[in-house]
Amino acid sequence: MRTTHPKQAVCAAAVVGILAAADGRPARELLMAAAAVLVVQLSLGISNDLCDQQHDYRAQTPGKPIAGGQVPAASAGYWMIVLVLLAVPLSAYNGVESAIALLATLPIGWIHNRWLHRTAFSFVGWTLTFALIPAFLSYGTWSGSGSDQAPTWAVTGAAAAVGFCVHFVTTLGDLVADNKSGARTLPLRIALRIGAPRLLLVTIVITAAAVAGLVVAGLTVGLRQ
Hints:
mainly alpha
């Protein structure tokens, strides 16, 4: 369970469930939407630890069972595939277009974990993933019946901005470990230039602005075109 990054996965699923409820979706639909996001995020959590096992071992990062030898990489990879296979029908229950939007976050996450998330392009995966969430909600209905409306560009852009900011929020606590392991993420590069305290302040400000922008876009322009 620790290899799945469960806190992050549960938070993402809860946020999607809340947004689905705010969109007026019935309980069975919002629960299915949240379940699909949960399984996708759990699989990506394992992918992250698999890709980072050598770096985590070198930095002696705590709470990493694969790098610490408590969980064999082959076993973790098996459960990652199981979760991916579960994600397909769970996503499909929300409709074809909705499923495509959510399942597209899997290859984005794999590319992010393998090549991008330790570089200056560490924000790309987060930004693209959050940008696809409005499409997942906009198209999503029970068993694919109902909405076929695309999300508005305003909400999509605001969601992407929130994803960019969330990347900084989730990275702040790992700056020392990332520096020790040789990573050079965008937040770490900025922290090395302006200092971690200033980066924290900037992150709080831009995150608050991004969330406010998403709320305003949702209340004015709306989710669907």
